[in-house]
Sequence to fold (344 residues):
Amino acid sequence: MKPTTLKQIAELLDISTSTVSKALKGYSDVSEKTKRLVLETAKLMNYRPNSFAVNLRTSESKTIGLIVPEIVHHFFSSVIKGIISQAEKKGYLVIILQSNESYKLEKKQLDLLLSQRVDGILISLANGTGNFDHLNDVLLQNKPLVMFDKIAKIIKCSKVIIDDRKAAYTATQHLVDIGCKKIAHFRGSLLPQNSIDRFLGYKQALLDNNMPYDSSLVYICECGDRSFVEGKESARKLLNEHNDVDGIFINTDLVAIGAMTEFQKLGVKVPEDISIVGFSNWFMSSVISPTLTTIDQPGYQMGKTAFKRLYKEIQQIKRNETVTHKKIVLDTALVVRESTIEAK
Fold:
């Protein structure tokens, strides 16, 4: 069955198409009686506005694009929920795309979103993204762009982040405070800014406590689909190369859980032999045994804040105002659980 048109409603009621259109929009120059009649008839005929035509008239698509490295991931799923919760309130549809940590795919997806004439774009960069020309292309088209979590500092757009360096420092300092003497770090891949900052926070905490920095105690985990496996592999390498390590700060909870699983298999006790601090506060962190001490990263709040920022910039462009960019830093917190020993 073809969709009902304004013309069909007008012919049935023997009024003009423009009167039907005005009645549906609530214009004051149409009588209340006619408005009620048009609305009742439109409902009976199952009329739906042609959103494409409306978008052409208003130069709005009422859609935004969202690109994340992973969808099936505790942190990013929380971010997505936060974004959608706010987008629905403003009548926006969210097109969600997954880059799979691939720069090439991320670039292709940005082009796709621009071709779909989205009103704005939210993005957390892929680990493989080292060139940012595709992001500047978005801004050159006067399209609002808000980055979150994994960002590029040199891109002039709004960003919603946490202080990764400070959070990592807090995590490492906790290991120092409970008496750990040799602390390793399972870091993320080399490119993402948050991975860099977490490594720098770890390193600074060691230096501030007069503990030597040893690059051989830093293990790179590319994360992504292999996070759990990489945690297990890095745990084995650590025991083979540094069996006297008594503390580890780990870049993400899933890598930490992989490491804890391998330690348990090899007879290494957590936290009696090795204390571990993760990052993100994934749900599994509170239900594994022992439960995982971690940094709580506010994913849901990050999603809400990112959409609100994007929406504000969409409105600024709509009103032909100068877009103001802003960096918003959300708070984190150390959640102490069973994977770290009590302070001596």
Notes: The mean pLDDT is 93.
